Amino acid sequence: MALGMVRPQRHRKTGVYLFRQRVPADLVAVVGKQEVVRSLGTKDPAVARARFPAVAAEFEERWKSLRQGLVALSHEQVHALAGEVYREEVVAHRANPGGTELWVFALAFDNLIHSVRQRQRKIPSGLLLTTGWTEAEALARDRYGPRVDDLLARHGLQVSPQDRKRIILATAEAMRDAHAQLRRNAEGDYRPDPQAERFPAPQRFGPPLTMEELWEAYKKSKQISPKTVKRWEPVIQKMVAFVGVRDARDVTEEDLMRWRDHLLESPQPDSKNKKGKPLGPKTVKEVYIAAASAVYGWAKGQGKVKANPAGEIEVTVPKKVESRGKGFTDQEARMILSAALAPPSPLITPEHAAARRWVPWLCAYTGARVNEITQLRGQDVFEDSMVRMENGRKVEVTFYTIKITPEAGSVKTRRFRMIPLHDHLVEQGFIDFVQQRGKGPLFYAPERQKEGVSGQNPTYVRVGQSIALWVRGLGIDDRDVLPNHAWRHRFKTVGRRCGMDSAKLDAIQGHAQANEGGGYGEFPSDALKPEIDKHPRYEVTAAETTDGRRTRWSKERASSP
Question: 375, 408 in Cβ contact below 8 A?
Answer without folding.
Answer: yes
